[in-house]
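Quick one:
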Amino acid sequence: MDIIVKGRRTDVSEKFRQHVDNKLDRLSKWEKKGMIVDVEVSEERNPRLADVRERVELTIRTNGPVIRSEAAASDRYGALDLAIDKIEARLRKAADRRKVHRGNHSPVSVAAATADLPGDMPSVTATATQAPPAQRSGEEADGTEAGGRFSDEFVELETQGEAPVIVREKFHRAKPMSIDQALMEMELVGHDFYLFHDEVKDAPSVVYRRKGFNYGVLRLVD
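Output:
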């Protein structure tokens, strides 16, 4: 398991990096070949948000779906503990779902399978969960890295206003999937929406969460 720790608008001490390595050791039972855990630490400078000023985001990348969690607390050690609890619950749900598909049991509905998944605090920056970039021979679309990983850099986009807007731009390789799979992957990253390529409609679609365990689907048509 490769662990990558980075800070956004804050420094990360060697002591905390070692603490992360020790804490994430509990995820080793879910380890897969090529598993990478990205740990991003950020700090909110607004004194009114002192109780949630430290945020930790965990992202697990394997050959399967991306699994993600985030949490905020008054210190980064507490935020890390909360984020690990959330992502471990999602790893357990993903493992249980694989067992159902491999056995002869009746499929579990998305609502039932994700009923007790912990939620995340809303992210300050809206991000696309999965978007299909155009591919060129021998390389990914601009902004992506080899091996299917994607960029997570801040980029400057031209706007009509007085100043440019800085946003987070991500590119993902898209594999056609069913609506049920898209809903499950949405839950695994803790988002309220998920952009995917519908294998039945053969079109970009978005599933999103409504009240309770209801979901909606958005599609673009010419």
